[in-house]
Each structure stands twice: as structure tokens, then as C-alpha cells.
From TrEMBL:
Keywords: ATP-binding, Cell membrane, Membrane, Nucleotide-binding, Phosphonate transport, Translocase, Transport
Domain of life: Bacteria
Keyword Membrane applies: yes
Residue ranges crossing the lipid bilayer per the database entry: none
Domain (ABC transporter) ranges: 2-246
A single Gene Ontology CC term: membrane
Protein name: ABC superfamily ATP binding cassette transporter, ABC protein
CDD domains: ABC_PhnC_transporter (cd03256)
Record keyword Cell membrane present: yes
Length: 256
């Protein structure tokens, strides 16, 4: 359903943040990307829905290359891709319900979106989604009054409002305590297993990757150094993924 081929990205024209990155994400699976800080995990995730423009490669989402789409086509494709962020990206003064409703803005005309005109069926669905993530009683609370774990669950409900085929999560638990981490990861796992939604997650916590992932991709220095089922993620493999790159290896990546 998602295949990334030979993706390359340089932010400043010389240093390559990604070099020839290829991998696939299967339907209904949790795929976790791990790797040291600065390895390129966020760059990969943001390239998939073209929040940043990569330099080379293919991003096949349901066999269509995201890189070749015009603005309207890209907006349409993005409406099937949910995003979950470390800092939640909610509108804090608005209620949980209003934030979830924002998930369907991508399907509305500019005018309806500007005036936040939602159908009753959409409001009902947003309430149901808040119940699904365990926040039925918080629908009318301003998001600024919610805990981090609750905010992330609002973010998940907002993504679900898009009826996504895939949810991209950039360090979704980085700001959460262990209890909230479990709630959020259980929820993401459940969406893959029971709703058939593909979930692609950038994580720093190897133990969480081992617990929740079907498939792990290891990135080091802008390159894929591990791509296998979770059972193959041995301690040796983890050490290799997190190894420091030597200056000669880095110079390979720096070449133009
Ligand atoms: N906007 C930018 N301008 C210039 N360089 C950037 C930009 N964003 C990222 N980079 C560089 O690209 C490389 C990959 O960054 P990226 O944020 O994708 O890594 P990451 O693996 O997600 O790191 P972290 O785990 O710390 O979030 C790093 O060397 C980073 O400094």
C-alpha cells in the first residue's frame, strides 16, 4: 500500500539527509522506524505526504507516486493519510470535539472549511471517535485543559476522522509518561489489527518497537540499515542501527 523507492533528500544542496531509502509498509501492520537522532526518520515521514519535498525517488501510495501529483491531487491523496505529531498539533482553545472535526476539513470546500460548517453526521462520528479513544466525557473540554496522553488521543481521533488508509506518527509518545504511552500505543496497535489501518511510527524507544511493531526499519545516517520482521531485531541488530558513523562513511553521504 506504501512503497518508498530510492528516496533522497538534501536540505541545503550538499549534505544528504537521506540517501537511497527504500522500504514498504503493508496493510494493517504496525511498522516502526528507529534510529539515532538526526538519522532522517522525520524527513522520511514528512516526505511521504510531501510536507517536505524530497529530491529523488518514488513514493508509491496505492500505486500512485505522491511526488508526481498536482496540488488538487495531493490534497486528495493527503486526505487518506492521517498524521500524529509529538506536540499533538491541536488548537488548544478549541474543544476536543472541534479538534476532531478538523480532521474532515480536507474533504470540504474552502468556504465550508472557513466557516467550520459540519454536518450532523460528522458531529456524530466525531463524538463516536472520541468515545473510541476513551474520551467521550471530554468532548466539550478545551484541549488546553487535557493531559498529554488525552491530547494525543484527540490527535488520533482527528486522524481517524479522515478515514485514513495509513497513519504516520512522528514520535507520538515522546512527551508521554509510561501509562499514557501504553494507552496510546495500544490504541495504534488496535487500529492496525482490528481496523486494518497501516500505522507507520517514528520511535526512539526500542523496547516499545519490540512490543508493538510487526516490522522494523532501522535508519542510520540517512540510510536503511535494517528492514525485517520484529523478531529479527536482536540486540546485535540494535547496536548496529545505533552505531556511530565514521567520518569516512559520513563523507560518502556528504558527496554531492
Ligand atoms: N529544515 C532542515 N534544514 C536543514 N537540515 C535539516 C532540516 N531538517 C532536518 N535536517 C537535517 O537532516 C538530518 C535528518 O533530520 P531528521 O529530523 O529527519 O532526523 P531524525 O532521525 O528524525 O532525528 P530526531 O530523532 O532527532 O528527531 C539531520 O542531519 C538534520 O540536521
Amino acid at each position: 500500500m506504501l512503497t518508498v523507492k530510492h528516496l533522497a533528500k538534501s536540505y541545503n544542496g550538499t549534505k544528504k539527509s537521506l540517501t537511497d531509502v527504500s522500504f514498504s509498509v503493508s496493510p494493517g501492520e504496525v511498522t516502526v522506524i528507529i534510529g539515532p537522532s538526526g538519522a532522517g526518520k522525520t524527513t522520511i515521514l514528512r516526505s511521504i505526504n510531501q510536507l517536505i519535498r524530497d529530491d529523488d525517488g518514488e513514493i508509491l501510495f496505492d500505486d500512485v507516486d505522491m511526488r508526481q501529483l498536482n496540488r488538487r491531487q495531493l490534497r486528495d491523496a493527503r486526505s487518506h493519510i492521517g498524521m500524529i505529531f509529538q506536540n499533538y498539533n491541536l488548537i488548544e482553545p478549541l474543544t476536543a470535539l472541534e479538534n476532531v472535526l478538523h480532521g474532515c476539513l480536507g474533504t470540504k470546500s474552502n468556504l465550508a472549511g472557513m466557516f467550520s460548517l459540519y454536518r450532523n453526521s460528522e458531529k456524530t462520528e466525531a463524538l463516536q471517535l472520541l468515545q473510541k479513544v476513551g474520551l467521550g466525557d471530554f468532548a466539550y473540554q478545551q484541549c488546553r485543559n487535557l493531559s498529554g496522553g488525552q491530547k494525543q488521543r484527540v490527535g488520533i481521533a482527528r486522524a481517524l476522522m479522515q478515514h485514513p488508509k495509513i497513519i504516520l506518527c512522528d514520535e507520538p509518545i515522546a512527551s508521554l509518561d509510561p501509562k499514557s504511552t501504553t494507552v496510546v500505543m495500544d490504541l495504534l496497535r488496535d487500529l492496525a489489527t482490528n481496523d486494518g489501518i497501516s500505522v507507520l511510527i517514528n520511535l526512539h524507544q526500542v523496547d516499545i518497537a519490540r512490543t508493538y511493531a510487526d516490522h522494523v526499519i532501522g535508519i542510520n545516517n540517512g540510510q536503511v540499515v535494517f528492514d525485517d520482521r520484529t523478531a529479527a531485531l536482536t540486540d546485535t541488530a540494535v547496536t548496529d542501527i545505533y552505531r556511530k558513523t565514521t567520518s569516512s562513511e559520513r563523507s560518502l553521504v556528504y558527496e554531492g
